[in-house]
NADH:ubiquinone reductase (non-electrogenic) (Rhodococcus artemisiae), 483 residues
Amino acid sequence: MGGADKGETTVVDRTEVVIVGSGFGALAVAKKLGKAGTPFVLISETTEHLFQPLLYQVATGVISPGEIAPSVRAILAKYPNADVRLGRVVDVNPDDNTVVYEAAGQRHTLGYEHLVAATGARQAYFGRDEFADLTFALKTVNDAERLRRQIIRCFEEAHITADPELRKNLLSFVVVGAGPTGVELAGQIKELAQRYFAESIGNIKGEDVTVTLVEGADKVLPPFGGKLSEYSKVSLEKAGVDVVVGTMVTDIDEHGATLKTASTGETRRLTAETIIWSAGIQANDFADVLAERTGCETVRSGRLLVDNDFTVGRADNIYAIGDMVTLDNLPAQSPFAMQGGRHVAKMILGKVPAGTAFQYRDKGSMAIINRFRAITRVGKIELTGFIAWVLWLAVHLVYLVGFRNRYIAVMSWCGSFLGHRRPHFYYAQELEPAAPAEAEKPADAPKADASKADASKTDATKHPSKRAKRKAAAAARVPVPVS
């Protein structure tokens, strides 16, 4: 078994079903098994169930992380047959039906009758992994909180700087990828500038803030297409977002991005302090493990090419669902994960025969653009504007876990969308000493050396490294409410 050189593992227990992950698909399986009384162990690297569609609202201060990331144990507490374990699954042996997982610095082996993998996906950089260190992603709660701190820092520093070039860069935001996440973030950042910071910071106006949305396809929200994509583009442009389609990002550094127009080959440079990457996904590492152990084929993004019953490769008792798989080009969205999870649970419970092909039920698609604007497609029915926006809020409210989280979300939405407040925006000031006043130099000090030192100091002040800023951002902080 791979990884055995890191220490011996022994089978300490067995269970009927092992579920790996804590997203929509994993919980759909767990709830079905829980209601049926089937013993299962759910292993996850995190203790929360993340409601990913609302991450952008955490990043922009509309709601708090706790409202979209409730405890997995709390959700499954009513099922005595449920066993939730914090750990990371690192290997699987289909021959003896065991998984190996790491927890508390040790390796454990757990046997199963059925294995369900639902580990989701992470951001894809299309072979340019160095972009991860230069951009902001939005896949986890930590990503959202990190982006929120960056947004507030940019506005706070722009408020006090006397350098017009630095101010312009601080108030420039580039969003790469015009899928739902990119569109939501671009619209919200511009709305922040116009409705929140323009009210709370006197010397910053909405028009001072530049938000550029870059998309490689020839339309925003490509899966929708037609008039819905066009409505989204027009709505963003009316809100002040610069929408650039048919354009690829060819390079990114600490001070901006280089764009190339697909049709003409023309390149141009955008300078910005903040670049947000939301273009594409790739499967998490456990997909590679499953592919190697079962012989399952994968696509370029590392997602598993599962059979139509979600079985993986040669194994007939290992299933994979959600964002980590591809099946009939179905969308990598929460409905696909939840329906897939329920289908797998029915096969495990014997409610449908093993090997039953999955039938996806399209309940429609929707995306929010900004305040009072969204798009919705249900069958042949297409809605835009305020009605679609209300439907978007209602549907996402239903999928939030717990009455308390729903109630707080509604109150937060009222304060943010009907008023001008951001209830969960606060600034964490870095605990760094201010630079001391320059000491008087000796009369015989070499002038050339002093000039070089001054020049170096000026360059470092005007163009600090993003990596240095992020390192400082991880230091101790003192929360200072600004809402």
Notes: Confidence is low (pLDDT under 50) at residues 1-7, 431-463, 470-483.
